[in-house]
Amino acid sequence: MKDEVILAIESSCDETAIAILKNGELLANTVNTQIEEHKKFGGVYPELASRLHLQNITAVLSYALSLKGFDYHTITHIAVTIGPGLPGALQIGVMAAKTLATYLNVPLIGVHHLAGHIYANEFVKDFKYPLLAIIASGGNTEIVYLKDELSFEIIGETLDDAIGEALDKVARALGLPYPGGVNIDKLTKEGDIKTFSLPCVREKGYNLSYSGLKSHLLRLIEKEGDMTLERKKEYALSTEIAFMNQLLDKVENAIKDYNPKMLVIGGGVSANSYLRKEAQRRFMGKLDVLIPPLWCTTDNAAMIAKVASHLIKEKKEASLTISSQPNMKL
Ligand code: KG4
Known about the structure:
By secondary structure, this protein is α/β, with parallel strands linked by helices. It has two domains: 5-116 and 299-313, ATPase, nucleotide binding domain (Nucleotidyltransferase, domain 5, 2-Layer Sandwich), CATH 3.30.420.40; 125-291, Nucleotidyltransferase, domain 5. It is 41% helix and 18% strand. It has ten helices and ten strands. The strands form two sheets. The chain has a five-stranded mixed sheet, sandwiched between helices. Strand 1 (5-10) and strand 2 form a beta hairpin. Helix 5 runs antiparallel to helix 8. The longest helix has 30 residues, at 229-258. The chain is globular and about 60 Å long. The mean pLDDT is 96. The structure holds 5'-O-[(R)-(carboxyoxy)(hydroxy)phosphoryl]adenosine.
């Protein structure tokens, strides 16, 4: 059987990434993150993101291809994130992918970014269906049911702010640098920290809401004025618990109702220590819980290649006239 060699590109937000997946084995996984450049703006500055992708993509590509003994003529497919994401940022990856697919005369595979976050977990273990997936990132918060491979049904989602976006805003009010979620998590790791309870959010079904909780916290923080490090830690841990438990309570209900064989977590917020620990503690023994390794919680192209390998099996190739879809639905 002919080898399957996928070169995948991801550029939907603030990471320029290229990966090479050969017959399911990850040969290269190069990620250039722009976090430092966006820090001074307190969040991702879209126009800067596009310019940095354009500036860096060829270096990232050359690095991935510099793999010892690798001949780029063996590439059989080019995969690329086509959406959702920042319009300008997506276009850089899509243009590069079309150029490579044309030059190498191989099929192009268009991949949904969130499918990537879900299938990143296949680097831990093969999936068992039906499966429940949590997507928790700066731009998305969804509970997704997969009856089968690549069949996505969003059964719950945030009705306002994404979990990471709200966490980042609370972190900023606490005087923590971008990306705030990471720094909230760091604060909660040392010492014996006291917590206080925050209001419970009760949305219908499996839906979620983070905006009210965020505004409540912002008001509390403003009233508090100058805070000691100890008090900041109390805020950080209490926030983390309230945010993650809202999500996990809904997931617990969905597990009872849908009876999935596996639970997987994806997206930047899946790096959160409390979420990782608590998901294991609550659900281990009831079903398989996959916690992604930290390297595949942030945006990367390995996860895009993984989805592409499933799309290839189903012969779902994209046309070379395809364009990016910033608001693409799962
Ligand atoms: O998936 P991602 O890298 O980018 C997109 O939004 O697509 O997610 C970034 C989000 C940010 O809000 C960041 O604060 C959050 O993930 N994040 C975390 C942690 N690491 C990243 N939030 C909580 N705890 C973490 N350890």
